[in-house]
Amino acid sequence: MKDTPETGCRNAPILKERGQREVFCGLTSIIWLHRKMQDAFFLVVGSRTCAHLLQSAAGVMIFAEPRFGTAILEETDLAGMADAQDELDREVSRLLSRRPDIRQLFLVGSCPSEVIKIDLEKAAERLTTQHGPHVRVINFSGSGIETTFTEGEDACLAAIVPTLPKADTRQLMLVGALPDVVQDQALDLLGRMGIGPITVLPSARADDPVAVGPDTVFALTQPFLGATHAALTRRGARHLPAPFPFGEQGTTAWLRAVADEFGVSDELFEQVTAAPRDRARRAVAQAAETLSGKSVFFFPDSQLEIPLARFLTRECGMNAVEVGAPFIHKDLVGPDMELMAQGPVFSEGQDVDLQLDRARAARPDLTVCGLGLANPLEAEGLTTKWAIELVFTPVHFYEQAGDLAGLFSRPIRRRDLLKLEAAE
After folding, report:
1. N or C: which end of the chain has fewer CB within 10 A?
2. How deeply is 66 buried, as exposed, middle or buried, from its count of CB atoms within 10 A (0-12, 13-18, 19+)?
3. Residues contacting residue 398 through CB under 8 Å, at least 6 positions apart
């Protein structure tokens, strides 16, 4: 394990760019949110393009009945020749009559609905009055006009927070959607330390006992939840700053922050974490044999870039050339930046042409970027990793540390094997 750098990167200069960006829209987040929230339905108020995006991203079979859909805005809606609010009310009524299992209905704004200024906030209030208390209707924006794709989850959770009842007892809230198996691992570790009660946002069901108040402390599991962080803070909850739980060191630091808050002894902490820490270290070490000494360049995409750069530089021995992120929220990622040695360029936002020039000049061993840039860069001889795969794959906490390192080592191993075959 590397020592903590004497001077971290929290106060490093940040190159701020405001130009053309290459990102997915926030509707993509519905794909993991609808799996997590079992009695929710996500109704996108948008175009046929929105519907095609969701169907393609989710890979939904034609005979399946998913818990998301699109209220299609036709030409008459876009031209103002029809009352979009009346049509939306009819669509919602038909949906809820057919699907009585729905307890939470999310009206999700899109680029088309925002361009023609459909007021989904008022629609949500009106529909909650009509269909409550059995169904709670909430709206948030998944538009890609000014956002990146992980902000869809952030907007969704931030919209839920004001609807939560007030909590009067001390509790820990874990915030951020995780695969069930990963969430269970985290809850098991915390439970064995005697930490509780614990609630989770987003919860699986609307009637799960999730509340928030001045005695709530919350730990984020995803680094893209800036709006949710602000919404919880407004409700009086207190954030536990910590590195994000990627890799052995990040997971240990995250758990340590929670354990210190709840007075867990060093002996108990060691007893609970020793075995999984050792497994994580050994798993990461295997991938680090391929990654050590290699350079990595991050294009801004998911907002996971800074915690992942910390993991790769500290635990895998890589050298970060540039770490680009759509937004750099230091209240969230500052602890990760503090653990990184000075050296990489940090960039916020994007001017894709300028950043492509820097990547071509640097010729990194691995470039982490969006799907739209990966194939062109591969054609130019750069080895790439799809950033979106890091969101859809279980990568948090100890048991996934080796898998996380493997996501970065495999493209490099594949490149080396191809070079050997070409040489033969």
Report:
1. C
2. middle
3. 185, 189, 248, 251, 273, 276, 277, 279, 280
Structure tokens at 384: 């790439």
- Tell me which CATH code domain 171-261 carries: 3.40.50.1980
**CATH number at 26-147:** 3.40.50.1980
**HSE of 347, CA atoms in CB hemisphere, 13 A:** 24
In a structure prediction context, what are the per-residue pLDDT tens digits for the chain, which is 424 residues long? 455 555 699 999 999 998 777 667 888 899 899 889 999 999 999 888 888 888 877 776 555 567 888 888 765 555 454 567 888 888 899 999 999 999 999 999 988 888 778 889 999 999 999 998 999 999 999 887 767 889 999 999 999 999 999 999 999 999 999 999 999 999 999 999 999 899 999 999 988 989 999 999 999 999 999 999 999 999 999 999 999 999 999 999 999 999 999 999 999 999 999 999 999 999 999 999 999 999 999 999 999 999 999 999 999 999 999 999 999 999 999 999 999 999 999 999 989 999 999 999 999 999 999 888 999 999 999 999 999 899 989 999 999 999 999 999 999 998 888 777 666 6
Rounded Cα distance, 299 and 349, in Å: 10
316 is in an annotated binding site: no
Who's near 282: CB < 8 A, 6+ residues apart?
402
The answer to whether 142 and 152 have CB atoms below 8 angstroms apart is yes
Where on the phi/psi map is residue 360: left (φ > 0), alpha (ψ -120 to 50), or beta?
A: alpha
The three-state secondary structure class of 415 is: helix
* β-bridge partners, 105: 41, 137
Partnered with residue 238 across adjacent β-strands are 217
The answer to whether the 26-147 and 171-261 domains have the same CATH topology is yes
The domains of the chain are located at: 26-147, 171-261, 281-423
C-beta of residue 113 within 8 angstroms of C-beta of residue 73? yes
DSSP state of 3: P
Q: Is 111 annotated as a binding residue?
A: yes
Query: Could you identify the residue written with the tokens 């492509």?
Result: 356
Q: How many CA atoms lie within 13 A of 240 on its CB side?
A: 24
**Residue 369, annotated as binding a ligand:** no
